[in-house]
Amino acid sequence: MEINLGKLAFDIDFHPSENLVASGLIDGDLHLYRYSSDNTNSDPVRVLEVHAHTESCRAARFINGGRAVLTGSPDFSILATDVETGSTIARLDNAHEAAVNRLINLTESTVASGDDDGCIKVWDTRERSCCNSFEAHEDYISDITFASDAMKILATR
Q1: Which residues are registered as beta bridge partners of 46?
Q2: Which end of the chain is more exposed for a tag (fewer CB within 10 A), N or C?
Q3: Domain 9-156, CATH 2.130.10.10 — does that match?
Q4: Positions of the WD repeats (predicted)?
């Protein structure tokens, strides 16, 4: 499968149960594409285009069973977008004091975000609020993973 996005992609994520892929682009846009899972040569179809951020869209992650997609940006914001309608569910302006680089699902109701200053924040998606914060590194968070069996977050810089 090949998708010509027209712009540089910073991040992609596959939907957990549907043939959808989300891409966060350098111009701040979020694109969703539907693709075929069989071996036909049908091109992916863009089903959603949202101007999510004023700066680049560095992180994109499906949440809530794929009903929404989160994006993060150097404009310090995190945006939750409805996958079906493209409408904004929630926008956290100034979610971090530095550029948001990474997003990850932790549980059904929590996600984590990492920024350019090495800070990781855990967010309660029901309350739309930060429930924990860690000064994990002195430099940017390049990636985050979650060990659910041990309830531990691992971050790299």
Answers
A1: 33
A2: N
A3: yes
A4: 93-133
Asked if 74 and 58 touch (Cβ cutoff 8 Å), the reply is yes
Q: Which residues pair with 32 in a beta bridge?
A: 22, 48
Q: Supply the DSSP string of 32-88, one letter for each residue.
A: EEE--SSS--PPPEEEEEEE--SS---EEEEEGGGTEEEEE-TTS-EEEEETTT--E
| Local confidence pLDDT in tens for the 157 residues of the chain | 788 888 999 999 999 999 999 999 999 999 999 998 876 678 899 999 999 999 999 999 999 999 999 999 999 999 999 999 999 999 999 999 999 999 999 998 899 999 999 999 999 988 889 999 998 788 899 999 999 899 999 999 8
Query: What is the C-alpha separation between 109 and 67, in angstroms, rounded?
Result: 13
Q: Where are the domains of the chain?
A: 9-156
Beta-strand pair 59-63/45-51:
unpaired
Task: Please give the model's pTM, rounded to 2 decimal places.
Answer: 0.90
Which two tokens mark 40?
Answer: 């036909």
